[in-house]
Amino acid sequence: MIERIDAIRAEAEAAIAAATTTAALEELRVRHLGRKAELPNLLRGVAELPPAERGAVGKAANVARQALEAQITARGAELELAELRERLARDRVDVTLPGTPPQPVGRLHLLTATRREIEDVFLGLGFRVAEGPEVETVFHNFDALNHDPAHPARARTDTFYVPGPGRGPDEVLLRTHTSPVQVRAMREQPPPIAIIMPGRVYRRDSDATHTPQFHQIEGLAVDEDITLADLKGTLLAFAKAIFGEEREVRLRPHFFPFTEPSVEVDVSCFQCAGTGALDGAARCNLCKGTGWLEILGSGMVDPNVFAYVREYGYDPERVQGFAFGMGVERIAMLRHGVPDLRLFYDNDLRFLRQFG
User: Fold this and answer.
1) Which long-range contacts (CB under 8 A, 24 or more apart) does 246-252 make?
2) How far apart are CA 308 and CA 295, in angstroms?
3) Domain parsing of the chain, residue ranges
4) pLDDT recorded at residue 119
5) What is the pLDDT of residue 57?
6) Lesser CB count within 10 Å: N end or C end of the chain?
C-alpha cells in the first residue's frame, strides 16, 4: 500500500510540475486530490486495514496529500503570475492613440487668443514683450508712476495688499495694472525703448464688467522725438488690425496720473460702421448710438515718471514718449459681443466652444 502511495505521489508531482496553465493545474488537482481520486480514497479506506498497517499507511497518505497540495499552490501562483504578465502585455493600451470616439483636440481660451492677437500686432510695429512680477511694491505700483498719496486706488478697499513687514514704498500688494513693468524696463534699458506689457492684474471689483482678476496689455514708447501724433498713428494701426481696416480712432481729453496730456481712445463702431444706427433707423445697441466705442486709455508719459528713472538715461528735458493700456477682456467682449465679463471665467464649455 505504501508503495502505491509513493507511486501516486511521484506521478502527480511530475504532472503538476509539467502543467502550463492554471486550467490544466485545476484538472490535475481534481484528478489527484478530488473526491473520486485514488489518494483520498486510500485515506478513507485506512480504517479497513489491519491495525498494524493503519498508522504507517495513514501517515504516508497524509504526507503525500499535503505535499501535493503545497506543490499545487506554489505552481498555481507561478502560473497565475505568468498568465497575468501575458495578459497585461496583450492588453496594453497605447495612451498616445485618440480616444473612442475621438475627442476634439481643444483650443486656446478666448482671452489667450485675443492677447496673442494683440501681441502680434504690436510686435509687427516694432515693440517687444516685457513682463514683471504680479506681486509688486507700492513704490513701483504707485509712487514711481506719479500717483498722488491720496489717490483712491491706494485705499485698501480698492487694492489687495499682501500682509508683511514692509511699510510705505516697500509695502507689497497685488499689482493693479501692468504699468510697474514700465519703470522696471526703463531701469534695465536706456532709450529708445518700445515695449508692451501683458499680464494679470488685480482690483477689488466684481460685476458684469469687472472681476477681481483680469488681464491688461500696456505699451510704452520713449525716444527723443516722439509726439502725440505717433501715439495716434500706432493706435490707429492697432485698431485697424483688430477691428477691421475701415476703423478710425478719436482721442478725447482725460486724466491719468502717469500721462500728461492724457487721452481716452475710441474706435469707430464696427457694428453700425460708425453711423450710430442699424438698418438706417434703430439705434446701435453696441455703441449706444454714438458711433464710437471706448477701447483704452493713453497719453504722453508725464515728466515726473521720467524723473524716477533719470539716472538710467531718461532725462525729461531730452526724451519723451507715450503710454497706453487696455483690458484684454474689454477687447474680447467688443469683438465677440460677450455681454458679461464673468462668462470668461465660468469654465462653461458651451460658451467657450463658440470661439474656435
Assistant:
1) 246/270, 246/273, 248/274, 250/292, 251/298
2) 29
3) 2-90, 110-352
4) 97
5) 67
6) C
Tell me the average pLDDT of the chain: 89
At 356, is the secondary structure helix, strand, or coil? coil
Concatenating the DSSP letter of every residue in 188-232 gives HSPSSEEEEEEEEEE-S--BTTB-SEEEEEEEEEEESS--HHHHH
CATH topology of domain 110-352: BirA Bifunctional Protein; domain 2 (3.30.930)
Average confidence (pLDDT) over 36-51: 71
Most confidently predicted of 47-61, 68-82, 248-262: 248-262
The string of DSSP codes covering 231-257 is HHHHHHHHHHHHH-TT--EEEEEEEET
Instruction: Write the CA distances from 223 to 16, 226, 299, 320, integer angstroms.
Output: 91, 6, 15, 6
How far apart CA 40 and CA 3 sit, in angstroms, is 16
Query: Residue for cell digits 509688486?
Result: 136
**CA 131, CA 135: separation in Å to the nearest integer?**
12
Query: Tens digit of pLDDT for each residue in 322-346?
Result: 999 999 999 999 998 888 888 999 9
pLDDT, tens only, 134-192: 999 999 999 999 999 999 999 988 999 998 777 778 899 999 999 999 999 999 999 99
Give residue 218's pLDDT band: very low, low, confident or very high (50, 70, 90): very high
Distance CA 325, CA 345 (A): 22
Any idea which residue has 497540495 for its cell? 69
| Predicted local distance difference test score (pLDDT) of residue 210 | 79
From residue 298, alpha-carbon distances to 120, 248, 251, 254, 255 in Å are: 20, 16, 9, 9, 9
Taking CB atoms within 8 Å and a gap of at least 24, the contacts of 109-114 are 109/344, 109/352, 110/332, 110/336, 110/344, 110/352, 110/355, 111/215, 111/328, 111/329, 111/332, 111/344, 113/355, 114/328, 114/331, 114/332, 114/335
**What does the pLDDT look like over 272-329, one tens digit per residue?**
888 888 876 788 888 888 999 999 999 999 999 999 999 999 999 999 999 999 999 9
What's the CA gap between 97 and 106, in Å, rounded?
Answer: 16
How remote is the C-alpha of 137 from its chain's centroid? 26
